[in-house]
């Protein structure tokens, strides 16, 4: 019965959604983007934030490890800078030309019957650039990115009611604004994982999460996702599978293509033209 215009339903199938990290997961570390990005972050810390040159490399790495992104760590330490300015600085001059179209991965993605969503800590401009360079911009239902998890914070609306202790109230509001400015929601925090699951509206028990970061994998497992460490032949704590390259996905996880053969009547692959940022 399966033919043109009829796609397989995943009703009752083991997996309904595939959640992909992007950087160093959909393309290999050897492209050099990761190193270039770190160099740009270090330059930002040195020139824009005035951090001591000898401290920058160690601090950059330590904050990345502790907070998931160096940016989140810098904010938590109290450094003040504009999120968009930071992203433009570190991504604006990346060697994107190193990323080439990947028709093999494209065909693999398009043949998977599940929903497919990007979950990255990067900003939407970087995500769009990377997906476009890889020729994968129409392979995903949407992108959960920095802006999705960290929408622009608006200061609390001033109350029209007169407060007897207005000054104290204002201080409290200012403290709240400062606190909001410093908190960045990103992987590997469990809260970020749970937010992505909620935004994507998926059942974690029926979702596979792909990422090259061991910390993200451990956190995803706590969020009850099925997990695949990418870029490693060895399992890490919390990983259900290990994939040296995303290109090996069919050999390692044939179950992705094993749907419920009894349901053939429902079209399940949304045919979207553009990748949308989920919010
Ligand atoms: Mg990554």
Automatic annotation (TrEMBL):
Q: Pfam families this protein is in?
A: Hydrolase
- Region: Disordered, residue numbers: 153-173
| Superkingdom of source | Eukaryota
List the InterPro entries hit by this protein, alphabetically.
HAD-like_sf, HAD-SF_hydro_IA, HAD_sf, Pyr-5-nucltdase
Q: Which parts form a coiled-coil structure per UniProt?
A: none
Which protein, by its recorded name, is this?
Answer: Uncharacterized protein
Organism, scientific name = Cinchona calisaya
